[in-house]
Design goal:
The chain is α+β, with helices and mostly antiparallel strands. It contains twelve helices and 23 strands. 28% of the residues are buried.
Length: 480
């Protein structure tokens, strides 16, 4: 992503404000006298399009819910009734923080960080939900608030540390002389299980990625090579924050937030999303005079029209019971037909025929597809009940199998996060599907659920095919 002007910033900010509230994150710092109530600044409230209810539910990562009252003022809102119980439950201290994302129906998902930027283990681990009632009472104090004794707290820390790195979130604050290099917090390194990578790749929410070198400085690590460009691109300032989630292969997804807890709009909004990639730009001389084409006839060349990623939809009343999929092709393509061999060559990615995607689903799928090189065969499946239970069958688009996999039973490696799963491709007449086995193990490992979207990226078309699998969670694309 190149440099931007003030107009770019304003356009990104406006686009962000108009996004669905369920696609936004907010960071609430715990400062001052927050034990009984916490103030949500006006800047955060302005970013929220809808009306914040008078009572909300805050759900932690281990699915525990806490009802909190909301008092509204002209320039802020305050979390009041029920807030103190949440604070006591997780024994939160000054300089901790809480990442919120609205999920609809007056509910927010929250991630709780301590003062060092590490998650509060008790808000992540799910073992307490499985305890019998008589055991759970041992962890409840006289006020009715669930508490951890010292032994439990130590056990939680141990269990959390041994979680897969891909199951953890880290909060990193921008501190010190950070413009060209910044120390990686020691707590971040300690929470990261195994050796910290020597080079990482940061993926922002707008689909951009950045290589960042990790330099060793005596007894510390530092973000070094590439960090300065990242800082400049997103105008990072003192006390801004980054929420990082490991994605395998030295890759981290990153949410960038300002010092008041608002997301940096430029890191979320896709740059020039409405401009086709090969749209001819007007060339300007150093004097900013427009160079006209007829002044330079040698510059006039025929160009192929750009392929636009537009989705053509088919609807069917029974689509929710099947793998939801459809082709995406250029605007000049003929009407949809899975049996049309001429059409197949124009597909950017494939779906099965009977489906309907919401606008949010289309946008998120297109964001993922834009990060995959052109020419790579892709198919997309919206997960239904039969894909993740019972027979665990996942049907593949007929033409996709014909063109790229061949009409023969074979083993396909499904790869995600450094792990691979051998899925058997079964052929039964015109139907091709992944059946149980490796697909079932993949579903269980990554908690694939009904409504999630899986994007399959074919890496090899030889004897042993390999597919990268990208997962878009249902809550990311939920309609209002």
């Amino acid at each position: 992503m190149g440099s931007s002007c003030q107009r770019c910033e304003l356009r990104a900010e406006n686009s962000y404000k108009n996004m669905d509230d369920r696609q936004k994150f907010f960071l609430v710092p715990l400062k001052g006298d927050f034990q009984q109530a916490v103030t949500i600044p006006g800047e955060l409230v302005e970013r929220f399009r809808g009306e914040i209810p008078a009572q909300i539910s805050l759900q932690t990562r281990n699915r525990n819910s806490h009802t909190v009252g909301v008092t509204k003022y002209p320039d802020k809102i305050v979390f009041t009734a029920g807030w103190a119980a949440l604070i006591n439950t997780y024994d939160l201290h000054t300089d901790g923080s809480m990442l919120l994302r609205y999920t609809g129906d007056s509910q927010f998902n929250i991630i709780i960080f301590d003062q060092f930027g590490c998650e509060e283990p008790f808000s992540v681990l799910e073992d307490y939900a499985c305890l019998p009632p008589y055991l759970l009472k041992r962890h409840i104090d006289a006020t009715g608030t669930t508490k951890c004794c010292e032994n439990c707290a130590e056990l939680d820390e141990y269990k959390y540390h041994n979680l897969d790195n891909k199951e953890k979130y880290f909060l990193v604050s921008v501190k010190g002389d950070f413009q060209h290099e910044m120390t990686v917090p020691e707590e971040f390194v300690q929470c990261f299980r195994g050796d910290f990578p020597e080079e990482i790749r940061l993926y922002t929410r707008n689909g951009e990625s950045y290589h960042i070198g990790i330099a060793k400085r005596t007894d510390k690590l530092a973000f070094s090579e590439g960090w300065g460009a990242f800082v400049k691109t997103y105008d990072l300032r003192m006390d801004d924050s980054m929420v990082l989630k490991y994605n395998g292969h030295s890759r981290f997804n990153v949410i960038i937030l300002s010092r008041v807890g608002c997301e940096k709009a430029k890191s979320v909004v896709v740059s020039n999303a409405s401009v086709p990639p090969h749209f001819p730009k007007r060339r300007r001389a150093d004097t900013t005079t427009v160079i006209r084409a007829h002044d330079h006839p040698e510059s006039m060349q025929m160009q192929s029209p750009p392929r636009e990623r537009q989705i053509c939809l088919r609807t069917d009343s029974a689509s929710s019971q099947r793998n939801m999929a459809m082709p995406v092709f250029s605007a000049a393509s003929p009407s949809l037909s899975d049996n049309n061999p001429q059409l197949c060559g124009q597909l950017r990615y494939s779906f099965s025929k009977k489906t309907h995607l919401s606008d949010n689903q289309k946008k998120r799928v297109e964001e993922v597809v834009r990060r995959i090189p052109l020419g790579v065969p892709i198919f997309v499946a919206v997960i239904c009940k039969s894909n993740v239970s019972g027979s665990f069958d996942l049907n593949l688009p007929t033409q996709y199998v014909k063109r790229h996999l061949g009409r023969q039973e074979r083993t396909i490696l499904l790869r995600r996060g450094g792990k691979s799963y051998e899925a058997k491709l079964c052929i039964n007449g015109p139907t091709s599907r992944f059946s149980s086995g490796g697909w079932r193990r993949f579903v269980k490992e990554y908690s694939v659920e009904v409504g999630d979207i899986c994007v399959f990226e074919l890496l090899k078309e030889r004897e042993m095919c390999t597919m990268n699998v990208h997962i878009i969670r249902a809550y990311e694309v939920a309609d209002g």
